[in-house]
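User: Please predict the structure of the protein below. I'd like the answer in structure-token form so I can feed it into my own downstream comparison script.

Assistant: Understood. Taking the following sequence of 710 residues as input:
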Amino acid sequence: MVLESIISTIGVVSQHTVVPIAREINHCLKYNHNFENLKREVKKLKSAQLRVQHLVDDARNNGEAILEDVIKWLSLVEEASEKVEREILEDEDRARKKCFIGLCPDLKARYQCSKKAKAETRFVASLLDERDGFSTVSHRAAPKGMEAISIRSYDAMPSRTPVLKEIMNALTTADVNMVGVYGMGGMGKTTLVKEAARQAIQEKLFNQVVFATITQTQDIKKIQGQIADQLSLKFDEESECGRAGRLRQRLKQEQKILIILDDLWKSLDLEAVGIPLKDEHEGCKMLVTSREFDVLSCGMDIQKNFPINALSEEETWELFKKMAGDHVEHPDLQSLAIEVAKMCAGLPVAIVTVARALKNKNLSQWKNALRELKRPSPRNFAGVQEDVYAAIELSYNHLEIEEAQDRVHSLVHKLKASGLLLENHSDWQFSMHDAVRDVAISIAFRDCHVFVGGDEVEPKWSAKNMLKKYKEIWLSSNIELLREMEYPQLKFLHVRSEDPSLEISSNICRGMHKLKVLVLTNISLVSLPSPLHFLKNLRTLCLHQSSLGEIADIGELKKLEILSFAKSNIKHLPIQIGQLTKLRMLDLSDCFELDVIPPNIFSNLSMLEELCMGNSFHHWATEGEDNASLVELDHLPHLTNVDIHVLDSHVMSKGMLSKRLERFRIFIGDVWDWDGVYQSLRTLKLRLNTCASHLEHGVLMLLKRTQDLY
């Protein structure tokens, strides 16, 4: 019994003394083995690190998000590898050192280094085990709606601040689920709604904000894709209907979501896209931009709509200066820079891009830029992006008269130099060789669906099925081609008769719903083409050298921009012409019989730019009389080009348009001969029987700007 107790006691003591001592002694005996194990494990760890890093790089290149555990693991591995490699070399050197004058190994150093190596091996092994637990290193990055879309720094403009505030108020109103913003292209609608979205995110008004650009061609699948991408939604369905159902389901999962639909040109079928309506999801709100108020109010039934107008002149100049630099305030440049800034029409996109393009440019470059901006074309001005010209063209949807005519001169000169046009007696006229004409007609017929018909019309050209596809028709005979036929694609029709007694049927325009330009020359027109609803899109009407009957219905052509009665027998200008408020050009040249123009016709033509009355009406009256007065012309803000004859200088108004006129031919006094070539832009002919005091205002101001004086 005593013996058993002694043996038991010895066993317990040996377990707590001998075994641990043997383990510790083992550290000294197996130090080489421990170091080799550590080296092997470190080598395996570095290989694993390299493989994981390759996977991470590939994932990042694919735009995926790296798992936090993987990022932490790579960091630990990097630290461990550097530490172990450094310490292995140091500890191996220590373990090999000897004591007692090099006769015995340093057991203490071996023990410490070997034990440390074994511990490091366990840590490296744990990192390798952790690597084996990675089923993947990344996941698809979930774009956070608008946070994934670049939002440029927003500079609050005084005119924009109240609009932004109203938008934010509308977005927080419980019973408003759709908000609209409208204004012409380049006005800054997109920037404004992105700022509204940024503030909504910052104020945590919505759990999610997504943005989709609609564009003129509404591609439903593309719209669905834009929204889905920002919601990390993958479509398995191919059909629009199937995708719409999946998108609707996903959107309903968001408690509060703002959907921004940018650049709407026409009403959008929200159900077809998959956007839940108010009754389906009260937490879903929409912010929509468009160029047209009617698209938002009528087409989309949006409750709250806010206009974005052009920047004021002060805002325009401040933004322009900021973008172009302080040098624009140099005395030699400032007035020119201000004029360039004004040409941007208060459009932020135009202001920013033009100003940046002209930054640090010299005076001649600024002058050239101003000329180019007056005739917008993306080919004309290197350094200015095409979208700016698009924005400017939308604001100024016409070329300025002077620049447009200069461009015609340039083109005619180039064509003459190339031999395609022949010289004539003036720069305003040209001739064309028959062979060149035939080729030109052939090219126009082949490439542009233009039909030019005379006596030589080929049967295949005049076949009914061929004529229906034409967009432009020029006829000098074979006018019977217009009778009892419809031309659904026709946009331009020019009819010139060799017989002035030829009567044109009033139904010649039947079925020409797309017609924009109608030119009738040397014909007898009893009445205007009817019914007039076929001409609802007509922009230009020229009734030249013709015998005109009843044309009072002309007031119904509300979209008309150019109207010409040149060389026709009109005697009394219909008062209904005053209803053509979009008219930009009125040509009454060589209307020798025109005696009566009722008062207030001209004053109603607020968009009129060009008035041509050479060899025509000259019975100008003073205000309150039965004929038109020159005072009416003073109130036309866009009028820049006039040809007029004034018999009595006393009826001249004080301002007489002198500051706005860019081109004029004004004859004052007795009968003048209007024939001849006038090369200059501003011509004034005077034959006065009065004292100079009457010239103090209107005429005197014209004299200062006249280039040719007779």
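That's the full token string. The chain has 21 helices and 23 strands.
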